[in-house]
Known about the structure:
7-stranded mixed sheet
Amino acid sequence: MRLAHVTDLHFGSEEAAVVAGLRADLIEQNPDRVLVGGDLTMRARDDQFRAARELLDSAGRPWTCVPGNHDLPLDRLARATRPLDAYERLVDAEAQPTVHDGGLRVLGLSTPRPYLWKGGLIDAGQAELIGSALAGAADLKVLLLHHPVFHSPQRPHETLVHGAGRALQAAAEAGVDVVLCGHDHVAAQIDLATVWPGLNRRMIGLMSGTACSRRVRAGESQSYTLLDLAGDRLSIIVRRWRDDAFHSSDVTVWHRSPGGWGP
Ligand SMILES: [Fe+2]
Ligand SMILES: [Fe+2]
């Protein structure tokens, strides 16, 4: 099973050559599914959503998406009263999608909130949803959201999503394998049990960089991530933009044991 994690596309601030390169690379890498972590747009404008949607559709693979904070409108009244209107109209009517596809189970959570622009929120109802949607057996269980549940080494002072603790507790109890996030525009991964004491399962926290926008952090380039599952071995391959194409840079192999995942 091969998955691609693509996030923070930020159409409206996209780099055209990188968009074309991302489409070509997704076609070539041929993942079974593309998991999209939000911030599809800069300003939640219709034309920006359409451009993001066009990229996802043209890669020719099934995709599953959640919204990011930039996918809520800037206009205060619209943001407060109809925050996901354009997203649900132009991307997916279901902002919290579930996937049961062969051995794969995915739950996407919508974490942006009109009044929590920076950190976002996983509320009690969403934590319960993790338990119900991700229960049962699967080869790989993935929780997909926009806001981070761990600090990357590159940006150790960023705000984490509110409610991360209860969400990860529910995820651990449901047997989640990987939690995918974006928002920080850097590539990072971690054993979540090392930073969230009390979890009874070792889950992989994985953050991908901005896939195709100009909003790259110092020292980073555009990137996305491939996850290759073979039995109890998961290879995480960061594909970075360099010299007009995406190339594999860091490859990390994780191994599954009864308690979860370790190097
Ligand atoms: Fe972003
Ligand atoms: Fe964001």
